[in-house]
Specification:
The chain is α+β, with helices and mostly antiparallel strands and about 90 residues long. It has helices at about 20-30, 50-60; strands at about 5-15, 35-40, 45-50, 70-80, 85-90. A five-stranded mixed beta sheet has the order 4-1-3-2-5. Strand 2 and strand 3 form a beta hairpin. The N and C termini lie far apart (about 30 Å). It is an enzyme of class 3 (hydrolase). Belongs to the acylphosphatase family. This is Acylphosphatase. Its EC number is 3.6.1.7.
Length: about 90
Amino acid sequence: MSQLCIRANVTGRVQGVGFRFHTAHEGLKYSLKGYAKNLPDGSVEILACGEKENIDALLLWLGSGVKLADIKSIKTEELEWRHVDGFTIK
């Protein structure tokens, strides 16, 4: 099992629809560590660290997990492993 961290930038209607809350809930469900944070441009940045298959599951969920959201794009980049406590909303 491989541990990794990713940073995802999700664009579309993702602020004001509970996106960060639900993302944090899913992150914890998949035993991931990280955060979900609103950015000034209207997108949401997600840091997720954990097992690759759990990160893949979160990324799959991001595309359709919040009913009120309207996802336009999800861009990801792999980051160097880092220790993060919990999955927080920023």
